[in-house]
Design goal:
Elements: H1 5-28, H2 34-57, H3 59-66, H4 76-102, H5 110-134, H6 162-177, H7 187-208, H8 212-218
Helix pairs in contact: 1-2, 1-3, 1-4, 2-3, 2-5, 4-6, 4-7, 5-6, 6-7
Length: 228
């Protein structure tokens, strides 16, 4: 018998959070890492709250979000992009943890900097939450849903890919939250991969989603107003 959507969702969340905890504390080789605990608590709370809310408000969205990762992508280019993004997420956590363990870039005023990093992570989740509320067709893969229409309200009235904007806020915040400056260097390749993904995605949407070309002309910026 197929498991309920709620059970599948929480199993996926639990597996990911256990993986994230292991990724933080095994390389740190210590449980005395308050930055790691605070980040894990903030990230876990944001994921759980978002999941619970949309299981009630928009279960179809959660179903679409469960279909994710390189293997789920239909386009070869997106398979490569998803694989690269997964590796970079792994490194965005691992590098700061190792940096903390070996003390290569002690962060001045570590409490304030780490808390600021966690605030950026929360802001990233807030942006993504607003994206989910505005667009029920926000899938984990590049695809067109049945009866899908162009969304031009909410965050989509500001930039064309607000979910990636939120993701970049998180990737900026994670190294700081974990107490590392060196980890910020990974924001460069991650930004490049996200730009590659959205450019490739826009080509697909122009071909497959009626009205998207007009939307591109209406909303000029992809990720950040007045910048890109």
């Amino acid at each position: 018998m197929e498991q309920s959507l709620g059970r599948r969702s929480f199993e996926a969340v639990a597996q990911f959070l256990v993986f994230l905890a292991a990724l933080i504390f095994l390389p740190a080789w210590s449980l005395r890492y308050w930055q790691g605990w605070l980040f894990l608590a903030v990230f876990s709370a944001a994921v759980i709250v978002t999941t619970v809310y949309f299981l009630r408000a928009d279960p179809a969205l959660i179903e679409r979000r469960l279909k994710a990762g390189a293997a789920a992508e239909a386009r070869r280019s997106q398979k490569v992009i998803q694989a690269l993004a997964s590796v970079l997420f792994f490194l965005t956590v691992l590098v700061p943890v190792l940096d903390h363990r070996f003390g290569r870039s002690p962060v001045p005023a570590s409490v304030s900097v780490s808390v600021a990093g966690d605030v950026l992570v929360v802001l990233g989740f807030v942006v993504i939450f607003l994206v989910f509320k505005a667009n029920s067709y926000t899938s984990g893969v590049v695809e067109i849903g049945e009866d899908q229409k162009v969304i031009s309200t909410g965050p989509y009235a500001i930039v064309r890919h607000p979910m990636y904007s939120g993701a970049l806020l998180m990737f900026l915040g994670i190294p700081l939250a974990l107490g590392s400056w060196w980890g910020l260097l990974l924001l460069i390749p991650m930004t490049a991969v996200l730009v590659w993904r959205l450019v490739d995605e826009e080509k697909f949407l122009e071909e497959e989603l009626p009205g998207y070309r007009a939307y591109r002309q209406k909303v000029r910026y992809r990720l950040a107003p007045w910048i890109y």
